[in-house]
Amino acid sequence: MAAPYPVWLRWFAYTLLLTSAIPAGLTIYQLIRARHAPYYVLRREAFTRAKRWLLASLSLEAVAVLLLLAAAYIPNLMPVSLPTSTMTPTATATRAPTATPRPTRTPTTTPTRAPTATPPFIPTPTQAVPVPEMALSPLPSAVPAGEDARIAVITLATEEDAAGQPVDPGNEFAPGDHRVYLFFTFEAMQRGVPTTFAWYRDEELIEFCSDTWLWGQAEERDWGEKGRTSYYCKPPVGWEPGTYEIRVFIETRLQGIAQFAIREE
To answer: pTM of the prediction?
Structure first.
């Protein structure tokens, strides 16, 4: 006979169902923001939060449903008294099996292989590079780029001097809370041309660093038609070990790729 289903556990399942309404409401709120936020980055962040809240709501609901369905299948866990035999068993000497000791392996710490720094500049990749979604989103007042518009990556560094020149350029840097600068030249860039700098870590887009804007119309980025400058990023949580890549686009035309590594300490 099955044991009676604990009443308190049933009420706990109902409580989980009611609690799941909270992340469900937050999911709806973030989805609304994902559709109506004024900037692409805000819409992407809202969509990411919506997925997390939806997962939390579904998890609570799944646990609650499993607890309710388990009522009919919980076996009787009370010990059952077996009848005692009146026969006196004949003591048969049995040889206890000898446990063969298994050799214990001393755990060894496998060192994490530091990411290998790859060549930093790939102006013409040999394989197709996908265009990020932000570069495909139409921008109001965008101006078509001329055929001679160019952006060429030069070098990477974690500092620049007062003249805007790189300090100790390289393609492998220490982790931590610092900037990484991408230095580049440009020419024939008209005001209003869509431009994208997409930053990746291990092929995953870093939304905080990446941006698409109309050339010359973003704050502190009125660089003119021809010259040399830099674009930097400093993630809120700092740079973590891994392999990174910066892909530069004019409209949807790839201009170059800069690769660097954040090494293990």
So the answer is: 0.55
